[in-house]
Amino acid sequence: MRGLLATLLVSVVALTALSGCGTANSSNEPELPALPPIQHDLGPVAYRELIGDTFELLNEYWNEQANRLGETMPPPRALVSFWTRAQDKGCGGEKLGWQNAQYCWQNRTIAWDGNWVYGVLYRRLGDAAVAFLLGHEYGHMVQDELGVSSEFRHTIEAELNADCLSGAWLGAVNDQVITFDRSDYESLYDGMLEVADAYGVPWTDPSAHGTAAQRGRALLFGARHGARACINQLGPGFTA
């Protein structure tokens, strides 16, 4: 998704287009809460800018959604890119591990394996795969803030809902900030294959996240119908 990166470099312009307000906050909207700095922010400049701009756009989008309800959406308390086992603080005393990303509700932290996100998703699959993954983890934080995280009966429900919420954000970016090209969609497709469940994993498995087709449908539903539809139609209990 190299076209996305080139557009996101001027992040102030992108954020203004997404929110529909000027940098002077002339519309009297609440001031956007600041994101924490990314811990262990390593890698080439282009990669680090993609990560940073992705979180800026996520923070902007979800606060815009919350503002419509007279609320705010606090950003994560910490953003952690870990490259070594020592940097992997995990969640609840358990290491996250390699080739993984996670939102930890206990400390409101989004963490990811930098070796995997940079070496596989970014270098092999493209920017869109990275953006989708981070948007998915941000979606788990949104679930937590809405108080619905504990209402999902099956893991796969929460995961597909987070895919939908990531799709709602990506759809807004595609509609109001940039226009995705063929390489962007290929990157998203490849990203689905990378994070999909292995063949044969039952949907009731506690570790199930969904097949590539299921995850792709959830993302597309969010992109077409928006965040509210994700909660109303792919919220807790939708697989029952």
Describe this structure in words.
There is one protein chain. This protein has nine helices and four strands, in the order ααβαβββαααααα. It is α/β, with parallel strands linked by helices and 240 residues long. The chain has a four-stranded mixed β-sheet with strand order 1-2-4-3. It has helices spanning 2-8, 11-19, 45-67, 114-125, 127-146, 155-176, 182-195, 212-225, 227-233, and strands at residues 38-39, 78-82, 101-104, 109-113.
Write a concise keyword list for the protein shown above:
240 residues, alpha/beta, four-stranded mixed β-sheet, 9 helices, 4 strands, 53% helix, 7% strand
Set out the fold topology.
Blueprint: H1 2-8, H2 11-19, E1 38-39, H3 45-67, E2 78-82, E3 101-104, E4 109-113, H4 114-125, H5 127-146, H6 155-176, H7 182-195, H8 212-225, H9 227-233
Parallel strand pairs: 1-2, 2-4
Antiparallel strand pairs: 3-4
Helix pairs in contact: 2-3, 3-5, 4-5, 5-6, 5-7, 6-8, 7-8, 8-9
Short recap of the structure:
This protein is an alpha/beta fold. The chain is built from nine helices and four strands.
Low-confidence stretches at least 5 residues in length (pLDDT < 50)?
5-24
Strand content bin: 5-15%
Strand order of the largest sheet: 1-2-4-3
Classify the oligomer. single chain
Helix content: 40-55%
Number of domains: 1
User: What overall form do the CA principal axes indicate?
Assistant: globular
> Helices and strands: which structural class?
alpha/beta
Q: Helical region count?
A: 9
Distance between the termini: 36 Å
Rg: 17 Å
Tally of DSSP β-strands: 4
- The overall pLDDT average reads 86
Q: What string gives the helices and strands in order?
A: HHEHEEEHHHHHH
Largest β sheet strand count, sense and barrel closure: 4 strands, mixed
